Amino acid sequence: MATSTEARVITLAGIHNFRDYGGYAARAGRLRNGVLWRSGQHSDATPEDLDVVHGLGIATVIDLRGDSERRGNPCLRHRDWSGNVLFHPGETASAEGRAVHEEMAAQVRTADDARNAMLRLYETLPFRPVLVGTYRLYMTALAERESPSLLHCLAGKDRTGLAAALVHSLLGVHHDDIVADYLLTNTAGNAEARIEAGARHVREGFGRSMDDAAVRVLMGVEAPFLDRSFATIAERHGSISAYARDVLGVTPDVLAAMERNLVEG
């Protein structure tokens, strides 16, 4: 059985969706707990939040946001933190300063509009050059470093969700567990506070005519979104492993190193 939801989620005041995505059964054993962390951005972290995060021993942070997002919302770090932040320079969203789910909001009015927009988004996520560049850095870091890492974007749900799902898939986590972990975004920590904050930002940028239900779709995740990314990868590359090898540089040697660092027998 995987680690319980209560054990893997850490509720923080200013960092949303913070959780451990290890603990699942994998091909070579079980993913280690305490080494694979994911979250939203840390620009509103409180001092107490930073103390908690620092206590986890995270040595590598992978920031999936674009350059303008980092400039507009710089993440806060603990005063004693001396790790590395990895990212590929450039924009991961087509609209400067926006998260990827926000760029899809311009034509959205209803929940159905939002779902269709998110499905279109997830067809593109695995192939956006800047995002791919940071995914490559992440895979390399997982192969080369045994220490805990943290993966994040703005809300920790789309760019981060796909990256975590790819790691799970490559390590042989069952698809049901991959989807279940992805869907934890909808309930992890203070999800309502995250949705409220996101709703304000989306409506400020795209007007107030958007239905509340549409905002909730944009600020959450649904299994068909992730399925669309995986299906598009399969259509273009045949399999997740082939995509990871050809696009992300996850050769058999890199994958074996990832398993040594992340999986316990």
Automatic annotation (TrEMBL):
PROSITE patterns (alphabetical): TYR_PHOSPHATASE_1
Single Gene Ontology MF annotation: phosphoprotein phosphatase activity
Coiled coil: none
Signal peptide: none
SUPFAM superfamilies for this protein: (Phosphotyrosine protein) phosphatases II
Domain of life: Bacteria
Short name of any one Pfam family annotated for the protein: Y_phosphatase3
Entry's family note: Belongs to the protein-tyrosine phosphatase family.
Name listed for the protein in its UniProt record: Protein tyrosine/serine phosphatase
Organism: Novosphingobium taihuense
